[in-house]
Protein 1
Amino acid sequence: MLITTFTDKDITIDWVHNNPVRTIPRTCLLAGTVCIISEGPKGTQTSRMDKVAEGHSVLADKDRFNKSIGRKVSLVRALKSAGYARAIRKDIWIAYLTHTKK
C-alpha cells in the first residue's frame, strides 16, 4: 500500500496480484495485477476513503508473472482513468519509485 499526502487530500494506492498456478490451459483468465486508487480528505482512515479509479494488467498466455511490471502497468492505467493533473501524477510516480526502491 502506498499513501501519498497532498495539501487537501490523501491518496492511497493498493495492488492485488493474481498469479494462478501455471497449467495448460490457464485456470484463471484474469491473471495479472489490479491497482486501486482511493482518496479522501486529509487524515481520513484508509477504510473510509472513496475509490477513484482502478487499473488492470492482464497476462497473455506466454507472459511470465512479474509483480513489478504488473504494478507499473496497472498504475499507469489507473492514473489514466482517474484523470489526475500532471503534477499529481508526477508526485504519485515519485512516491511509488521512492517506495519501491531497494
Note: The beta strands are 2-5, 9-18, 32-41, 50-58.
Protein 2
Amino acid sequence: MQKWHAQYNIARGGYELMGFEERDGRRMVMRGEITVTDYEPGSYISEPTLTFTEDEAQQIMNELWNTGLRPKNGAGAVAHTESLQAHLEDLRTVAFHALKIDKR
C-alpha cells in the first residue's frame, strides 16, 4: 500500500504531494513527470492521470487537510460545526444531569 504526504512549499508557492511505498524491504518515493497530450472533448481517455484506492484517496484528503487546505464550498466547515454542536449538546446533557437542573 502506498502512503501519501502533502505539504505547502512556500518557495514554489504551491502544494506538493508525495507518494511512498515499500518494495522488497526498500523504501521508495514515486517521482516523475506527467505527460500532457492533446485531448478532444468527449473523446475516450484510456489512462487516467492518477488512480487511487479509497484508502489512498482518504490519506490524500487527510494530508491536504493537515496542511490547512479546506473545501471552498464550506462542506468541511459545515460538518465540523455540526459535530461541535452535537458535542456541545452532549456536554449540556451531562452538565444538567450532574447539577440536577431540569433541561427544558
Note: The helical segments are 54-66, 75-98.
Protein 3
Amino acid sequence: MRLFDTDTASAYAQLMVVENMFQNKVLDMPVVYTLTNKHTIARGIITVLFTGLTSSESSADNTINLSLNFEEFKSAEYIQKN
C-alpha cells in the first residue's frame, strides 16, 4: 500500500489512521478479522489475525510504503474437529 499527501490528509496522518485501525485498545488481545476477498476464500482462508505493519519512506516521491501482515486464524474448535 502506498500513502501520499492529498488535499485532505498528509501521508503521515493516513499512516496514523491505518495504524489505529488494527490496534485493539479496549481488549489487550488479538482481534480476528473475517475476510470477504474472493482470492483468499478460494484458498479456504476466511479468518485472519493482524500480525504487523511495517512502513518505509520514499524521499524520491514523498510517499510512505506500507506492508500489512496477517496470519490465517483457525479456532481451537476447528483444530479439534480436524
Note: The chain is about 25% helix and 35% strand.
